[in-house]
Write a structure and sequence with these properties.
17 strands; alpha/beta; globular; 14 helices; eight-stranded mixed β-sheet; single chain
Length: about 425
Amino acid sequence: MTNRPALAVIGLGYVGLPLAMEAVRAGMRVHGLDQDASLIAGLLEGRSHVDDVTDEQVADAVAHGFVPTTDPVCLGSVDVVVICVPTPLREGTPDLDAVKSATEQIARAIRPGTLVVLESTSYPGTTHEMLLPALEKSGRRVGRDFHLAYSPERIDPGNSRFGLRNTPKVVGGVTTVCTDAAVGFYRQLADEVVRVGSPAVAEMSKLLENTYRQVNIALVNEMAVFCHDLGIDLWEAIDAASTKPFGFQAFRPGPGVGGHCIPIDPNYLSHRVRSLGYPFRFVELAQEINGRMPVYVADRVMHLLNDDGLALRGSRVLLLGVTYKADVADQRESPSLVVAERLLALGARVSYHDPFIPEWDVAGERLFCVPDLDTALSEATVTVILQTHRHYDLDVVAKHARRVLDTRGRADGANVTKL
């Protein structure tokens, strides 16, 4: 491994593009490979499509040798290849077609000594069972002719405190030599690198992180439902429990879970467990609980209107914040979509506001962000806070709105009801 290796990043999404930017800052020669020609054209013109990477950062990287491309020929001229392609679910089953395609491209172009790292999330065993045979197919030997490792991505979109550089990087290689090569590479990008004994351990660590969150969010979501029926302020109870300096970590309820990690990643672990012949009950129960929260939110809107002697059908319902996470434009798996679909199905007149989303397709209907938030608040029968972007002054929201259902527990006022 050279001190400043040439790098190819396959997949320039929310994981791959920040990785490429950090590598350029570290002085590496970086190729970014993606099959989306319009995305590549935008990068070459200095346009970012990722929240955590600015246009200026892309333009500066291109000026310093970053080469976005759709041509896999670059894979034959680099020292390191990192795979950051999507790994979605198809009807509950992991879809690793993009990983397979990337591995096949690498196998055709790989040169002696190349380090290959998978960062895309998958089930434990993927690196050994899928990548290793494909890369050794032509007679190459891992640890001798090339190196192979897994290092889970830990990107948190919108997090201004922790990024690639100051988040510990877990690395597990197929052999000790492979691990050494991967550690040497990532030490140039991250302040701390954590060695583990195998790719499977590294793969499991990623799924453990997000399954832990899924299960604990499900716990407080279920508690939110029965605490409402009991007349207990769960948010106040969580704040009280948080004063304990040991043995407790606060999770808070919401309208459901979104993004790629929490609603998707635990399914990879569940898939692997089912292959052993038994269910992963904790994960499947947590998915069920979190999956029904959007419908619960819509039903709470209906009950609030009933309390005021009003019908949901024909009432104006304003949704605030429809992305999956605060202060990002990412809508992947956002529970807000299910909330809106349910409200429309029940006859509500749905509108929305989100500074990041100018247009929104809901149940075949195209909605547009309301142009005047204060007016929309005053006209809506109920305002539902789904996401607390910094753009929103919740005191102003409570002041102008007639009635508020706050799914995040952040607003106060006589007209505010917490989930």
